[in-house]
Structures are given as C-alpha cells and as structure tokens.
Amino acid sequence: MTHPIQTPYSVADVSAIIREHLTQKLKADQPDFTEVVHDSMSFDYIGLDSFSRVNMLTELAKHFGVRLEPTAAYDFVTVGSLAEFIWSEISGGPLDMKKVLGI
Amino acid sequence: MSLPLNDVPTIVSCIEHYVQTRPDELAFLFLEDGESQEASLTYRDLQTRAQQLATGLRNYNLKDQAVLLLYPAGLDFVIGFFACLYAGAIAVPANLARNSHHYSRLKQIIQDSNAKAVLTTDSLKSMTMAGLSNAGIDLDIITVLTEGEATGSAITNGLVAAINPDFPAFIQYTSGSTGNPKGVIVTHAQLIANERAIQASVEMPEHVIVGGWLPQFHDMGLIGAMLQPIAMGGCYVFMSPLHFIQSPLRWLRLMGKYKAVATAAPNFALEHCVKAAKDTPLDGIDLSSLKTIFCGAEPVAQKAVAEFNRVFSACNLHPDTVKPCYGLAEATLILSGGIARRAPRYLSVDREQLKLNQLRILDESTEDAKIVVCCGHVVKDHELLIVNPDTHHVLEDGAIGEIWAAGPSIAAGYWQNPQATLLTFGGYTACGLGPFMRTGDLGFLREGGLFVTGRIKELMIIRGKNHYPHDIEETLIKTLADEIAIQAAVFADEASNTPGIVAFIELPRRGPKLDDSALLHLVATLRPTVSQIHDLQLRDVFFLSFGGIPRTSSGKTQRLKCAQMYQSCLIDMDPRLVFSTRVARQIQPALVASLAK
Fold this sequence. Notes:
The structure holds 2 protein chains of 2 kinds.
Chain A: H1 11-29, H2 43-46, H3 50-64, H4 72-75, H5 79-91, H6 97-101
Helix pairs in contact in A: 1-5
Chain B: H1 11-21, E1 26-31, E2 38-42, H2 43-59, E3 66-70, H3 75-87, E4 90-94, H4 100-113, E5 117-120, H5 122-134, E6 143-146, H6 147-150, E7 168-173, E8 183-187, H7 188-201, E9 209-212, H8 219-231, E10 235-238, H9 241-246, H10 249-257, E11 262-265, H11 267-277, E12 292-295, H12 302-312, E13 322-324, E14 326-327, E15 334-337, E16 346-349, H13 351-355, E17 370-373, E18 377-378, E19 383-387, E20 401-406, E21 413-414, H14 418-425, E22 437-446, E23 449-455, E24 460-462, E25 465-467, H15 469-480, E26 487-492, E27 501-506, H16 516-534, E28 538-544, H17 559-567, E29 577-580, H18 582-596
Parallel strand pairs in B: 1-10, 3-4, 3-5, 5-6, 9-10, 11-12, 12-13, 27-28
Antiparallel strand pairs in B: 1-2, 7-8, 8-21, 14-15, 15-18, 16-17, 19-20, 20-22, 22-23, 24-25, 26-27, 28-29
Helix pairs in contact in B: 1-2, 2-3, 7-8, 11-12, 15-16
C-alpha cells in the first residue's frame, strides 16, 4: 500500500484500507474481477487461498501497527467482519460477535 | 548406534522406554503464539494423558476401530494421536474443516474408513457436530468425543502388550477432494521402520531436538516432524503453520533459540524465508546447532537452496544443512534422503530432452538448462529400482523411468480398495522381481543418488501440497452442472509469482448461448468454490467451443499441451476460443495507460 499511514478513526476507515488492499491485489492477479469490493463480500468470493489470506493479514497488521492472529482470516470471512475485528484490536474496544458474524 | 528405536516393535514402546529413563524431560513444546508462549508435555505427561484417553477410547469400544481426529495445531492432537495408538484404535488424522465442502470431504473419509468416532477439542465440539450433521452424518451412529469426556483417571492394564505391530496404526488420506478418497494404511511396524530410516539417513543423534511448523496431520509434518523426535527420546518444538506463514523467520528463530538439530520444510518455505529476510534484521538468529533441514514434499529448486544458503550464512547456517529428500505416503514417508556422497548434488540437463524422459547432461554454465537436484541416497533397508513403466524392464543407472520401491516401511495398501492396492503395491518387474510399490514418479539413479524428474500421472504440487487436476476439473463440472454441462482441463500457472491454476472450459455442442458477461458470471461462481474446496487460486479461465480442449486420438485430455498453449499465448488466437479472462489482463494496462494521458 503506497499511501502514507493514517491512524484510522473508525471501523469505516479500517474497512476502506482493507478494500483498497484487495482492489490492488485483484488488479494484479485477477483483472477480470471488475466488481467493486464491498463490506459484505467474502474472501471466498474473491477467491483468496489461505496463503494470500495470511499475507493480507500480515500486511494489514503492519499497516495498523497491531498484532493480528493469522486465524482471523478464517474466523472473519467478509471484508466487513474483518474490519470490525481489526478495529476492536486497534481501539481496544469490545467486539460485538453477534453483529460481526451476522447472527 | 544402539538406539532403543532399533529394537522396539512400535513407537509406543519408545515412549515407554523414555518414560523410564527421562520422565521429566520435555517431549513436546508448542509455541501458542509462534513466539514465546510455551505449552509443553514431559514424557510422563504424554504417557499418562495418552493412556488415560486410550482407556476411555477402549471403554467406548473403539479398539480396532477407525477414529477421526479433528484438531487445531498443538498438543491436544499429540495426545489424541498417541491415545489411538495405545488403545489399538486406528487414527485418521484430518485437517480442520472450515466450510461445508470440507465437511463433505470429512463425511467421505468417515464413510470410507468406517470411523466410529470423531475426537476433537471442547471448543470445536459443537461446530464439528453441526458441520458433520449438515453434511449428512448420523450422530447417533458416529460419536463426537472430546478428551475431557472420554478420559478418566483409570488406566487399563496391558495396553502396550495388546498392540499388534502388524495392525494399522493410522490411515493417511491422500488428496482427492471431490473424488473418492484413498486411505493409505500404515501399520505400527511400517511406521517405526520409517522412523529408523529417517534417523539413519542423517545419523540423527538420540534425544534430538527437532523444530517445525508443518501441519501435524499428514506426511512430513506428522511422521518426519512430530513423531521422529519421540521415537528417539528427543523433543519436538513447534508452532502452527499459520504462524510460520505470517512471519517465516519465526521458524529460524525457534531453531536458534531451542538449538534444534533437525527440521523439515518444503522448498517454498526456503523462498518465503529469503523474501522475509529482505526487510527484517537477522541478528539474534543462530543456526550453528542445526545439522539438517529435510527439504521434501515438492521438487527442490537448486536456486532456492543456494539463495537460502547465501542469505542465512550470516546466521551460521552450514551449507550442507538443506538436504533434499524424497518420499510419499505410500512409503509411510521417506524413501531417499541424506547426502549421497558419490553423487553430484545437482545436474544441469537438457530441458527438452527431459520432457521426452531422456537424460542429456549439460555444462553447468549452459543457459536455460534445467537443474535437477539429488534427493539423497535410498534409505537403509530399502530398495529402489528405476523401471520402464510400460514394459517393466529394470533400467540402468542414468536412465529415466518410474521409481519403484520395496522395504519394511512400504505401506500395507489402500483401505478397503483392493483394486487400487494391487495397481500401486503389486508391481513386478519383467524378470519377475517383486512385489514393488509403484510410486508414479519418474527419475533416475546416478552414483548412489536419486534424482526425481517428474510424474507419470499429472499431479500439481503447489506449496508442498498435492493437487490432482482431475479433482479440480470435477469441481468445476459439478459447480456448473445445473446451468451448463461443461468439460474442463486444469493446469498450474507456472510462470506466475503467486501460485495458481488455469482452467480451459469446453462448452457443450448444444447449450445455452452465453455472452461475455454471463461467462464472467460463471467465473465468479467457480473462483470461490475452487478456493473453498481446494484452497487454490483460479487465475485465468478460457472458454472454448465444443472440441476445443486438446485431446489424444483416444480421447485423453492433454493437459501439458493446454499449459503450453497458455504459456505461449497460442490459445489466445485459437479460433475456438469464445472468451477468456486473460483478455482483461491485456486490456487493463492499455486502459490504464490511456487513462494516464
């Protein structure tokens, strides 16, 4: 990611960063994927294998300066739910699991 | 060396021995965060917990029955696995299921193995029950158990004495996600024979400390990493594979910190470490104790090894540490390894000749030569032959043919599949020698060293994992079956930096007429399914009109030809091409360029 690191102020900021990362990756690997990446899109739908998911998480962790367990890419399977999880790690706030997992 | 390993009938006897001689020494050390949070088992802990759980399994009438093991990385799986061995049950280790496709595969494995129970953890129990039930498993017949539920404080007498070395210890299910799974049967005797072979190949010392991160559930991660040190009264220090992928230098740091003498990893791990070293300081990593990195599970690239050696020499890595090896589940694990002293470490050969299974050795400086790496010498007490796969004549040194193997660790066969067992394990040479296990791999012997050059069957090995094109093709066909009846050919995208696969999809002669956006929509359906079932990235898809997939005169798909047409871009100009996703890749740069003006 080439833009300068900005402290995210909300879950929407985090989500924007994740979507930007995925958009760049898709441009390079799967340019026929022309759909706009949105919050309820799953990483399965985008076609990320496990290696790519862990790498994505590593880059996001570096970008935000937080530790992220690699299993998070499996526990939180949509852009939106991953954003909620990362925001809770950054802000130290609680994670509403029901909301995040859409139960 | 007089090791207990060499005198015992089963690996369980090794544990019994070392509980007597070093009960409070660590057998396993797991880094829960990949870095510093340690969880451990002494030999006594291991024996007690495993025997208590084994007693519980016996009480559930699981002796002689297959038990599916569903665990995350860590110590609980170690206990579950050894409990099965102590109980005389047949362990069936499996990867955790993450979606409904995975649960479908687990159902196939349960049905094929006739498993009567599933052992899992407390936190995974309800999800496992839900997933299996949704997949169609009757939970009144198959019991889902946790260690906590099954175990008691009592320990049945005579567990060890009751173990029959010729009875199956575990079943390894090889790849075949949608096709019927094939279970490789490994007996206690075959398992311990392979551990002996591994030890001898590099003269591993008793009480060896082994480091690692490979998945514990099969092949190198199970037999080479998790079980090997226990067979020798040593210790396995490890982390989960995800923690390695996330930060590969953790593996090297682990080995330095705990002074590991041996480890195992596929070729891609070496490249992953080299890449990580580019922007991470290496101070604090000291690999002077490390004597062996078994490098197997996928072809070893000489360049990757050389780079790895170069970068990590700064950490005191000895240049002989990386030792390419070769093996497969049908041999329990290892067939060749260690350093074949008389043989060259690698050879430069003519690439085109190799495709015709002819060996023409070139000067090392030759451009575009293909480098084949020596996978060591055949392991102790085993025999390797190079055989003409059609005529079954044994071939001389330097000739390329199918690798056949015999010895005490060759697996017993495929579970309840006599046809497949006969085909693979019943090879006889033209002059009547046998039976040999036919590996399906091609290679040659030279001055005592084995060189592996390819596969007879078309197998894709991506990041150390086997993928059969046929299985992925079946997935594509099934996924689109309701909408359109297609045929497919799948192959690996060799040229790309990030591993992925490409599909040629042949449309039916009479079928729905689909425009570009409809075809793109099909791709959008296929990609997530391939990712979910096979954990692979489906990169490009080419839709061809009926008859467009290259086939032999007998109708066999020519996947190699498909790959060549893709790499050379000949397919892009093929009159039978209806639509491809590669078009977007070509248009994109032009579009971007035009927008920039």
